Each structure stands twice: as structure tokens, then as C-alpha cells.
Amino acid sequence: MESLLIKKEELLAKAFELKKAAWQLLLVTGVDRGQTLQAVYHFGKHGAAELLQLTVDAGSQTPSVPSITAIFPLADWMERETYDMFGIRFEGHPNLTRLFLPDDFEGYPLRKDFVAFKRILPGG
Fold first, then answer.
1. Is the pTM of this model over 0.85?
2. From CA 63, how far away is CA 90, in angstroms rounded?
3. Is 73 left (phi over 0), alpha (psi -120 to 50) or beta?
4. CB of 26 within 8 A of CB of 43?
5. How far apart are the first and last CA of the chain?
């Protein structure tokens, strides 16, 4: 599998180029690298063993990348899931709301700094 790290400013042009070349979107997810969050996209070609991974640094304080839903409509729910779990905002997404968690949920469960529960010990 070929893997490319691209800038977020290049994402829409690259997605459009892949669509024109008959690539299909397979997966959108996030990765917490500690210092930064990344949006990761996997593409494939129908009937071929070719796979392509695009990785985009989304930043750390207010992570965001452009939405590719206008080019690949399948990205809609995958971008919502990535937002829900990692907090990466997909700018231009038509309905970027939480998918699994309640709207008032605080935090993003797949980030490394997320504390699932805090155990309170006696005396402390």
C-alpha cells in the first residue's frame, strides 16, 4: 500500500484527482499521534489490489481538515464518526454532529488524553 502525507490545503484537489482516476473511498478515520491529530483516508480501486493511504495533519488545539463529502458522499458518516471519537472538525461538512455519543458528551474517547473514568481513592 502506498502511503502519502499531504497538507490539508492539498486534500480537496487530491481527492478530486483520485475520484477522476476511478479510486473509491474505503475508510476515513483519525489517529492521535500525541503532538498532533491526523485524518487518515484509505482508497482502493474496484477489482484491483491497489490501495492508497492519505494522511493529513489536522493540528492539535482545534484539529480540522476540509470535508471530502462533496467529492465522495460515502465520507459523510465516516467523517462524523471521526469527529465524534477524535474531535477532528471536517470543514464544510453538511451535518457535522455526533454520531454515537450524546450531544452533551464531553471529550473525545479515542484521544490519548481522554480519561474514561476517574477513580477517587480514599483520603485523596
1. yes
2. 9
3. alpha
4. yes
5. 50
Alpha-carbon distance values, 62 to 16, 24, 114 (Å): 25, 29, 16
Q: What is the pLDDT of residues 66-86, one digit of tens each?
A: 999 999 999 999 999 999 999
Q: Where are the domains of the chain?
A: 2-91
Pairing outcome for strands 37-44 and 51-59: antiparallel
- The whole-angstrom separation of Cα 37 and Cα 8 is 12
CATH of domain 2-91: 3.30.460.80
Q: Which cell goes with 79?
A: 467523517
Assigned C-alpha cell, 24: 473509491
Confirm if 59 and 36 have CB atoms less than 8 A apart. yes
pLDDT along the chain (124 residues), means of 10: 96 98 97 96 93 97 96 98 98 96 94 81 64
